[in-house]
Structure formats: C-alpha cells, structure tokens
Amino acid sequence: MIKALRRFSLNAALSPLFTPRYTSMALDRLSRDRDGEGTLARKVVAPTLGIFRPRGTGVVRVGGIAARQHDGVTCAATGILMLNAAADPVLGAWLDRGVVPAPDSLPVEISSLTTAELAAADPLERLRLAEIAVHDLATRRTLGPFGWPKKYGTPPWGAARVARVPGVKYSHRPVNDRDGALMDDVLGLLVRATSAGIPVPIYSGGDLSFGWDTAMPRHLILALPTTAESGKLRIYEPGSGRIHTIAPRELRRRSRPHPALGGWTHLAWTLIPIVP
C-alpha cells in the first residue's frame, strides 16, 4: 500500500480520464502510406534542424552559446522556442546570428519585442528575450480567460498551442509509464513521429516518493527527429542545453532519474503531433 502510494503522480491519476482517440489518430496518420513508397505522404515540412546537430549528442549552440533555459521556469518556453526556430528559418536566423526580420515578417515568437530588443547583438540576450516572450505566449489564456501563473512554468496545453511545425497540429495527454498498453501507443508515436522528421515535446516529472511538488509534470524536453534504425530517441534537454539519447524501452516503469529527462524519473505528459 505504502509502495503504491509512493508511486502516485498527478499525471498517472489523470491518464485514464483522457481519451486515446488523438494518440490513435496520430499513430494511424503517421503510419498510413498513401504513395506506396514507405514515406509519409502528407504536406508536412520537417524542420531543417539548422540550430540542432543533425545527429549525435552534445551541446546545442545558438550564436556560439549553449542553448539553455535562463531560469527555473522557462524549460517549456526554451524547448518550444528551439522547436519553432528549427522549423522557421527566419526565427532561427535571428536567434543564431541576429538577422533582424523585416517588420512584416516577424515570427510571432518575437513580434512583441521592441526595435532595440530585436537588434540585440548578444546571443545570450536574444535567447533570454525570446524565452520570456514564448513563455508569455504559452501561458496566456490557459485557464479560460486567465493566464497560467508563470512561476509554475508552462502547462502542456499552452505548449501545444504555440508549438508550430508546418503541416502539424499538436494535441496533448498525460502519461502513466506503468500502463503497458498506453506506453505501447505513446512510444510507438514518439518513434514514428521522430522517424518522419517531426519533433515531439514531452514532459518529465517525478512521483510522491520525492514529495507532492514532484508528483506531476515538471520539465519539458524535446524528442528530435532521428532514424528508426538508431533504436534510440534523441532528446534535447533545455536545462543543460544538451542532446541526450535514451532507448524507448527505458521510458517504461522508471524508478530512477535520467539525464535525458532533465534529472527527473518519469515520462509524465506528451504532446501529440497530428498530421492532416
């Protein structure tokens, strides 16, 4: 009884309340082969990953600096910023090289910045400004007409709303990593999506054994495009600004922290990429 209580987490408790419809839909559409060539026959523009390493692991750099979150609450903002910059060359060029877009082509992530802020020469300052702006976008109107308290980071539905890859819409659902059938679907989705060139933001967290404030989604990480043959997921972790790898099977029924999860133990929530 006590052991089971220690494994409690908010995401595991909420998981049965969420329909499997969107996960199943996403899996079906990613698996469907319309052209007979074994490729994803959809109008999905896979990110160029210009600001990520095309393969392997290590530090992710923009403008020569490590792409890390600047404070303790902007992990999701940093992860979504990097996702969107990988999919939008204009945003990526500003973030990496300080190339200021024309006023009529400002990416939404930086459209609220002043002229002076857009002209920031320091890449660390550009990253900080963009993280703050994305955090504001992703927490706005997430509790009906009200905003999410920023000191608690970014809720998954806020991250899903502002994540943008051409041809992809993101939904979301909580995850119980001890639910075998659910994990079959979630891990299958992560492998198929990333093999098709579609990044997937996911949240890690803890359980009651480390306290009430850990038994919920706590940290956003980003599963990057890879090849199914590699047998591992490539994970961008914004706390360290590094890409790690982890085998999908290692995300089941975890009991120990992992660097790819930002030092947390469990896969707690996933965004769901849905293609048309």
Describe this structure in words.
The protein is 32% helix and 16% strand. It has helices spanning 2-6, 10-14, 21-31, 75-87, 89-97, 115-118, 123-139, 156-162, 180-195, and strands spanning 58-59, 61-62, 65-66, 169-174, 200-205, 217-224, 233-237, 242-246, 266-274. A hairpin with a 2-residue loop joins strand 2 and strand 3 (65-66). The protein has nine helices and nine strands. The chain is an alpha+beta fold. The longest helix has 17 residues, at 123-139. The termini are far apart. Helix 3 runs parallel beside helix 9 (180-195).
Would you summarize the structure shown here?
The protein has nine helices and nine strands. With 276 residues, the protein is an alpha+beta fold.
Order of helices and strands: HHHEEEHHHHHEHEEEEE
Enumerate how many helices there are, as a single number. 9
Identify the quaternary structure here: single chain
Overall domain count: 1
Question: Could you name the ranges where pLDDT drops below 50 across 5 or more consecutive residues?
Answer: 33-38
Mean pLDDT: 90
Helix content: 25-40%
How would you classify the helix and strand content by structural class?
A: alpha+beta
User: What percent of residues are in strands?
Assistant: 15-25%
- Shape, please? globular
Please give the radius of gyration in angstroms: 18 Å
Q: Name the strands of the widest sheet in spatial order.
A: 1-8-7-6-5-9-4
User: How is the biggest beta sheet arranged?
Assistant: 7 strands, antiparallel
Cα end-to-end separation:
45 Å
Tell me the total number of β-strands.
9
